[in-house]
Amino acid sequence: WQMVQHPSMHLASITLIMAVNTAFVASSELIERIAHRYGFDWILKVNRFDSLFVIHIFNALFYSAIIFITSGQQMMLAEMYALGLVASFVINVGSLLIYRYQKGKTEAQGYTSWRFGTFLLFIFLFSCLVYLTIHKPYGAALWLGATAVSLAIGIAVARKRSPELKQKRKGDSAMD
C-alpha cells in the first residue's frame, strides 16, 4: 500500500531544502568572519580540498540537532525558518530606521529614502512577526531557543576575546 502525496508536498520539500541550503551557506560565511575577528584559527583549518571542514562539521551537527529536536517534522522547520527570516527583516529595517533618524541626514546625504515609508515597512514586518509568533508557537519556541543559545555563546566569546578589549588594555597600560 502506497500513500499518494500531493505534488505541492514535493514542492514544499524542495523549497525547504533550498532554504536550509541558503541558511547553511550564510551561517558558514558568518562563522568564518567571526573566527577571523576573534582569532579562532583552528576553525579556519582547511582540508586537502580547501574546504573549511570544521565549519561544515559544526553546521552539520547544529542542523542535525535541530532536525533531531523537531523529529524531522518539516512543518516545524518551515515555521522556524519563516520566523527567522521575518525576524531578520525586522532587525535590518529597524537598524536602518535607527541609522536614518540618528545619522542618516548627515552621513548619507546622497542617499534619499522616505523614512516614514521605511517606518511603515517596519510596522508591517513587525506585525507579521507578531502574527507568526502567536500562530506558530512551536516554530517560535524553536527559533527563540536557537537564537538564545547563539546569543549566549556570542556574548560569552565577545567578553573574553573581543579585539576591542586588546585595544582597551593597550590604552589603559599607556596611561599607567
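Above is the first protein from milestone M3; the second protein from the same milestone is given next.
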Amino acid sequence: MSGGILLRMLLITVAALCCSQLIRGKTPALALLISLAAILALLKLLMPGLQAGRQAIQGLLAQTGLESDLFLPLFKILAITQVTHIAAELCRDAGERAIAAKLELCGAAAALLCVLPLAQQALNMIGAFGP
C-alpha cells in the first residue's frame, strides 16, 4: 500500500472526525451518517490493496500445494471480527451500547460457526492416525 493511499485515508478520517464533532451536539444522526460515509470512502480506497493481497495469498497457497479450504475459515473469521468491531463501534457512537454488546456476541457466534468445518477436518485427521 502506497503512502499516498495512507495519507488519503488519514485525511478522510480527520475530516470526518472534525465534521462529526462539529455537528454531534446539534444533529447526532447526521454525525453517525458522516461516520458511515467515511467508512465507505476508506473501504473504497482499500479495495485495490485487498484484491492484490488476496491474489498474493492465492499465489502463495498454490506454490505450497496447501488447500485454500484450510485457510478460508481463518480469513472469514478475520472479516467477521473486523466488520463486527466496526459495526459495534458505530452503535456505541450512536449511544446504543446494549445493541453493540449483542452485535459482538452475534459476531463471536458467527466466527465459531466458521471454524467448525476446520475443527471437523482436524478431528478427521487425528482420527486417521488413531488405532
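Note on the second protein: The mean pLDDT is 87.
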